[in-house]
Amino acid sequence: MKKITTLILLLFVISIYSQDRTHWHAYSFSIDGSDEEAVVALLDKQFSTNKAEGITAYLYNVMFSDSEFDVTHQVIFTGNADAFNTMWSSGPNLETQLFFSKMNNYFKEGGSSGNGTTVLNFNSETVFPFQVVSIVNSKSWSSRDIMRSTMKSLNEKYPRKDRGTIHGNIRSGVHPEGTHYFVAGYNSYGDLLESDRDFRISNPNYMKDRLKMNKDVDWSTFKTVRKFTRVLVKKW
Predict the structure, then answer these.
(1) Of 35, 37, 39, which Cα lies nearest the Cα of 27?
(2) In angstroms, rounded to a whole number, what is the distance separating the alpha carbons of residues 9 and 175?
């Protein structure tokens, strides 16, 4: 049984890393509420004319967070390695330098940045505006891979059109203890509050399979170090 489990995990890892992976950069910052319209206008001008091909940009408003994560907004870039390589290799032009100079007039102290890779993304074709982001610390590669295999099996067996689920690695930044992340996306704030509970009640077999599969995961090796809620302002 152990050999079979190991083989399944190996095939899972191979299938994940053979795909064209999505990478991301995240920038978290604070601005005054009265400046949001001006900042969105600056971002809109910049991303509409100077965004590298193959890169998608998102602006989020942070709705709820802990006291240590004192930011109001996030800008997230996503794309493959080639697109990011082009983005960074081209270097900032005069218009980009002017953009950052103007943005600095609105930024308050604090904030953070980071980058990483998306490993699993269910319902990737849909943009879910309301999202709960969990930053975790994972100390065991084997438990992480079992968790990912379980997560993939459950989402494929019990697909949901009303929720997006994203999981991946943190390469650097974001949080001192953060190694991985989960994003749960919803169409509305009401769905964020109630749809998971409604789904569990309506799908008892899902709960049985989830409980059974989760017994193979050593959850003591995972620790949530940050959790916050954000809402999409604009996508470019």
Answers:
(1) 39
(2) 28
Higher pLDDT, 217 or 110: 217
Q: Which residue in the block uniquely carries the two structure tokens 């992340």?
A: 181
87: its two tokens: 């983005």
Q: Please identify which residue in the block is written with the tokens 């930024």.
A: 107
Pair 60, 77: CB distance under 8 Å: no
Place of tokens 């090796």: 221
Helix (H, G, I), strand (E, B) or coil at 38: helix
Q: Which helix (H) or strand (E) holds 118?
A: strand 112-122
What is the spatial distance between Cα 176 and Cα 226, in angstroms, rounded to a whole number? 10
Q: 10 Å Cβ neighbour count for 65? A: 17
Task: Give the pLDDT confidence score for residue 132 in this predicted structure.
Answer: 98
Query: What percent of the chain has pLDDT above 70?
Result: 90
161-207 pLDDT, tens per residue? 999 999 999 999 999 999 999 999 999 999 999 999 999 999 999 99
Give the tens place of pLDDT for each residue, 5-24.
443 344 444 444 445 799 99
